[in-house]
Give the backbone structure.
Amino acid sequence: MDAFLISGPCRVSGSLAVSGAKNAALPAIAAALLAERPVALDRLPPVADIRTMKRLLSGMGVALSGEAPATVTLDASRLASTEAPYDLVRTMRASILVLGPLLARFGEARVSLPGGCAIGVRPVDLHILAFEAMGARVAVEKGYIHAHVSRVGPQRGRLTGATVRFPQVTVTGTENVLLAATLARGVTTIENAACEPEVVDLAALLSSMGARVSGAGTPTLVVEGVDALHGTPQPHAVLADRIEAGTYAAAAAITGGDVTLLGARGEDLPAFVAALGAAGADVAPCDGGLRVSRSGPLRPVDVETAPHPGYPTDLQAQWMALMTQAGGTSRVVETIFENRFLHAAELVRLGAQVRVEGHTAFVTGPSRLEGATVTASDLRASAALVLAGLVAEGETLVRRIYHLDRGYAAMEQKLSSLGARVSRVEG
Ligand code: UD1
């Protein structure tokens, strides 16, 4: 199994091109299922989750051509199957994003239930309730969600617009309903919708395909269904990955470095940028991106995860790593997922002082970290261990890097280009 071997401590500096956002690329690929003509996407990140999503669509009969970084074209004009099998769905929860498009265009879908993951149970009940409100019949049988829309009667195989009010903000739930609503009969209003930039990016792509969407980026999305969607008139460039950008910004801050993140936009990460500034880093927009550096000491800053524009849960683990180097105690509160502190115990193995009480972690620093072998438990936890490894004395071996490869493009190469000593090894 692949591992990262990091020799620390180091200081990262230089400039880096931020990849396309995994979490925007996944729904964009699912959107191709809605169209009768090819959908072209630019800047798909070369990460494992995107390869899984492409495999999923290709298994349904979608014709794919091109390889990132070139334009990737997806042609779903002839589909052989409307099923998402367990083998692929279990490796990636976001596969659930095919449910809405399949149901909307073909009137039926069979998608494996995603099941649990390391950071919690993460049910998809809110997706299912929304599709039921839009007229679908949904049954869970033998581990599969089987959804269909009656072909007889007034529905004639088509979803019906409805008002969907999510009791809690769900990002892929919002995206799934948005995707489905584009081809529903009538108007769908999504209340308490996710406002994440990835939702805005999806709405822009769908609009370019002929969908009628308004309110993207606000808690109320209104979608007027149309009879069919065409392809993209020109390739849609997936937005830059704000979580990847935030992770490298944290690398600059933790090592006292100076990194320019090309393509990053501070407005996509308002709470993170504010926290970074309060902690003593300089964050400034620059030509084509964002420059992050630190020369003074790190100060402790509390963060609490929340839906956008709040502090992103996907940068919580990285913040914990950063705070191990701040002078004093900070509180990191996780409100989105029930079990997202698996990195805390591993950081402690490197010499950090972290105490977890329920949904709150107390981090006391600055700690002198020492290289050790640690094991990654999930995607963002892996990134936190790499950040800690950059400032730990000696060699840190981060095992089970396959989690990291799901969402970070060639992280060892990107960090090495900034002057860190990171290599991929067997371990
Ligand atoms: C997405 C992101 C993930 C990020 C998360 C929160 C993608 C592919 N993934 O995940 O990186 O960490 O948003 O910003 O974009 N919930 C339910 N029932 C549902 C749906 C969600 O109870 O039907 C709960 C979840 O368990 C969780 C909370 O709602 O506690 C938010 O989850 P959600 O926003 O749906 O996360 P994902 O869309 O899976």
Remarks:
- The longest strand covers residues 2-8.
